[in-house]
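[step 3/7] inverse_fold.run input=structure_tokens len=76
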């Protein structure tokens, strides 16, 4: 896993209790909300994400699916 990918996971984990932070994700990583959540879903399926624990992975995945189901985020 690259440093960039690790930073994405750390960021998502840090903001998970607050429901995420799409604006900060754009500022920090240059990703639209849709792209951020698609990448995060991919990373959550990686072996490196296992260290987060099943509950955290499930919560992050649920937040991603929720955001991607919103019309603006899913198309961005």
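[step 3/7] decode complete -> sequence:
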């Amino acid at each position: 896993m690259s440093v960039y990918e690790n930073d994405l996971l750390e960021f998502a984990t840090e903001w998970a209790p607050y429901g995420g932070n799409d604006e900060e994700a754009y500022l920090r990583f240059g990703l639209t909300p849709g792209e951020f959540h698609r990448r995060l879903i991919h990373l959550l399926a990686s072996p490196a994400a296992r260290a987060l624990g099943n509950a955290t992975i499930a919560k992050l995945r649920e937040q991603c699916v929720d955001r991607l189901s919103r019309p603006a985020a899913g198309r961005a």
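[step 4/7] annotate
The helical segments are 3-15, 22-29, 33-44, 54-69, 71-75.
The chain has a mean pLDDT of 90.
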